[in-house]
Structures are given as structure tokens and as C-alpha cells.
Specification:
This protein has 230 residues and is an all-alpha fold. 78% of the residues lie in helices and 3% in strands. Helix 4 runs antiparallel to helix 5.
């Protein structure tokens, strides 16, 4: 039962990578968007394949499993998604100054969020697990602050781009807020839901955040660029 969502994840992500690249923009300001979002599910497919084959699946003394490949997936894909968010905010900006700084700071916070989340997963039940889980959430708050304060303000230089940016960021934020909840109630946390249920939930979240988001965010940005005359 637990193998099924992993195999499905591999198949969906593999096909999605090809579809995103085939359907995406290959010239103009959204070319980078296509390249980033085609790479994301390819990385995820690799992680799902590793998990399906049992590579890096660590069974802890309490019989819960840490899927290390999943964290390596997030360590690569979430910075790519955030780089895309930063890039989309700058579509409405008149100047490119500061873009590298925003990417560096938001990616650093994101990497800390994933690494401390992995430490929380590996830790046995007790204070250490929840200290690192809380610290991961602190880093996540920093990521959300950058998305919704300075970057959102930057995107508002163009009303159409700003509206698209907020739609896309809102979609991604809602999905990302669910992941720590799943961690907390799943086997890596208080074990209120089974490992199989957790795998299915994360599969749905991954498809929404890495595949559906790729198509909807491009559609929103494309329409905004047309509206703004860019």
C-alpha cells in the first residue's frame, strides 16, 4: 500500500516535467519560468523513484520512517520555486537591483527550514524533535515575510504583475502551510495518521505545488504581461 503513492508520484512527476517544458514559454520573459518549473518535477520524480526503491528510507527505533530522498527533493525544488517567485516579482519592477540579494536570503532561509525539518524528523520523540520543528517554522515565517512584504511591494510597480504575483504566491503559500501540519500529525510527529495516509497526502500536495502551480502561475503571469503591454 505504501509503495503505490510513490510509484504514482514517479510517473506523474516524470510526465509533468515533459509537459511543462513542452507547453511552456521558450522565449521572452517567461522562458526562465519554463526551465525552472520543468526541472522541479524532474527532481521530484527522482526522489519518488528513490523512495519507491527504498533508497534512503530510514526506519527509526519507533518504527517510523524518514524518507531522506524527500528532504533532498525539497532542498532542491523549493529554492527553485522561490527563485521563480522572486523573478516574477521583478517582472513588474523598473530596476533589477537587489534581485540576487532577495534570492540569496530567501533560499538561505528555505534551506535552513528544510535542514532543520530533517533534523526534527530524525530525532526521536522528545524536546529535541519539537525544538527543531519550531526552528524550522521560524525559518518558514522568514520566507513568508519576504514573499508577502518586500517582494509583494516590488511586484506592485505593475498592477497587473502585482495581482498575478499575489495569486501565485497565495496558491503556493496555502499549500506550503499544510506541509508542516502533515509533519506534525504524521509518523514524524505525533503519529495521529498512518505512514500510508501521509504519503498520499504529500503526493497530492506535491502535485499541486509542483505541477498544477507551474501551469497556473505561467497562465497568470502570461495574462499579466499581455495586460501590462510587456
Amino acid at each position: 500500500m505504501t509503495q503505490t503513492p510513490l510509484l504514482i508520484g514517479f510517473v506523474i512527476m516524470s510526465l509533468a516535467s515533459l509537459a511543462i517544458y513542452a507547453k511552456g514559454a521558450h522565449r521572452g520573459p517567461l522562458r526562465g519560468h519554463t526551465l525552472i518549473h520543468a526541472a522541479v518535477p524532474f527532481i521530484a520524480a527522482t526522489a519518488y523513484l528513490a523512495m519507491y526503491l527504498g533508497v534512503g528510507n530510514l526506519i527509526k527505533p519507533d518504527d517510523s520512517i524518514t524518507y531522506v530522498a524527500r528532504y533532498f527533493d525539497w532542498l532542491l525544488t523549493t529554492p527553485l520555486l522561490l527563485a521563480g517567485v522572486v523573478s516574477s516579482a521583478y517582472l513588474g519592477a523598473r530596476e533589477r537591483d537587489g534581485q540576487a540579494g532577495f534570492v540569496a536570503s530567501i533560499v538561505t532561509l528555505d534551506v535552513m527550514m528544510i535542514v532543520t525539518g530533517l533534523v526534527a524528523s530524525l530525532a526521536l520523540y522528545g524536546t529535541i524533535k519539537w525544538v527543531f520543528f519550531a526552528w524550522s517554522c521560524v525559518a518558514f515565517v522568514g520566507v513568508l515575510y519576504l514573499i508577502w512584504k518586500p517582494l509583494a511591494a516590488l511586484s506592485d510597480a505593475s498592477p497587473a504583475i502585482g495581482a498575478a504575483y499575489r495569486k501565485n504566491s497565495g496558491f503556493l503559500t496555502v499549500l506550503w502551510l499544510i506541509y508542516p501540519v502533515v509533519f506534525a500529525v504524521g509518523p514524524e510527529g505525533i503519529w495521529a495518521i498512518s505512514d500510508a495516509a501521509t504519503l498520499w497526502i504529500i503526493l497530492v500536495l506535491d502535485v499541486l505545488a509542483k505541477v498544477v502551480y507551474a501551469f497556473t502561475s505561467e497562465r497568470n503571469l502570461r495574462a499579466a504581461l499581455v495586460h501590462s503591454g510587456a
